[in-house]
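FW: tagging you since you asked about this chain on Friday. Here's the raw sequence from the shared folder, copied in full. Didn't touch anything.
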Amino acid sequence: MLMRKSVEQVQRESETSTLKRTLGRWNLVFLGVGCIIGAGIFVRTGNAAALHAGPAVLLSFLVAGVVCALAGLCYAELSSTLPVSGSAYTYSYTTVGEFAAWIMGGLLLLEYGLAASVVAVGWSGYVVSLLGDYGLVIPPELTGPFGHALMRDGAAVIGPDGNAVTTLFNLPAFLICLALAGLLIIGVSESAKVNNVIVAIKASVIIAFIIIVGWFVIQHFDTLKANWDPFIPEATGKDGEFGWGGIFRAASIVFFAYIGFEAVSTAGQEAKDPKRDMPFGIIGSLLICTVLYILVAIVMTLMVNYKMLNVPDPVAVAVDAMGPAWGWFAKTIKIGAIIGLTSVILVLMYGQTRIFYTMARDGLLPKVFSRVHSKFKTPWINTILVGFLTASSAAFFDINTLGDMTSVGTLAAFGIVCLSVIWLRTTHPEIPRGFKVPLYPVLPAFGIVACFALIFTVETRVLVFFGWYLLAAIILYFVYGMRNSQLQKGLQQHD
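HL: got it, structure written out here
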């Protein structure tokens, strides 16, 4: 269980890399901003405000940003010490050991696979809203999770029979996941130019929302300021429902909005000066996104009452509230959000398939998941599985449950990354590090505590699911992973 890949081997792989060190500090900042801006701000902000924090959701963004910064510094140290692909899975395998790597693989399934489902549900919300603007209506029963009342403007939608409309299946979310899985099988080469255009669209949508809706709010401030009364809604007595408890509960929700910053750490082999540029890129991108997120939260919660934001498309709800005269702007925002969210789903599903691929090559998953298509040269079988799991989750589960499970998995993964820094400093103090976490071991230890503290603000039912999920993962490791591991067979053994 504690067998590890050799640190020396990983570093040798890094030294023989042919990648050019061309990325400066601002390249890394923009890389991080492009990865961070996505589903969280377009989708989860409304849920956090409506159900837990009210207008004070902007304080929740501050809390989540600090926790991410602590984890980000640890990612920066590991990426400058072990600048290889494979993300946190490889870090865990090299430091703590195989069992921790297996658990990390399970957590990354929640971070990438379920995150793609959350984004798909948000994508569905914006598509349904945009089609509605053009008079195209998808049957409401096919636009939400199984067994949930359809909500609109903060109230249940009543059908012709006088009863609340109950959704059965989220068809748009299901179809987009399958379509993108098909694209991944055929092979979607990464294009820097296309990525830059999509990043520019996402950033432009956010900035345009802040400026135009913000100007509208200023023009009508005397009327709209009532939406901030009270700024921190009084606690209801239930855990995580408003008050300061709600702010911290909302922090675990909007934490989802920061997922993606660790992509900066994967660029360790291409940074010109990792010691200086990696922390600048990570903290800089987090700081910029935190400011943008807080401004969006301010504008959104002033524009409409926070109780109306428990929807998959809160930005669309806010711009629709500006009235028919602003219909052109509402459509522009929705189109931009749909384009941005499509790219996020694709990237998350891509990441999940490559994690499965790496684990299969290590023997921890069946070899079939590392089988490459003879024509397309992609791991097609595991891509089909990821597409089906992502599509099914998006179709049948509600966005709040999916988002909470994603946040829990991600927070646990970040906690293990912080632990890996302490472990590697203790066991291999002699290894040269391009960057070191300041105030060691205080900041890594505080990162561990902060991550797990946010985990326990989540609903009990989600924590129970998470517990059963981990138990199933542990059993699967002993039944299959340990018996088939390449390290256990001595093929790559370094203890």
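FW: Residues 98-133 form the longest helix (36 residues).
HL: agreed, and DSSP finds 17 helices and four strands in the chain.
FW: great, closing this out.
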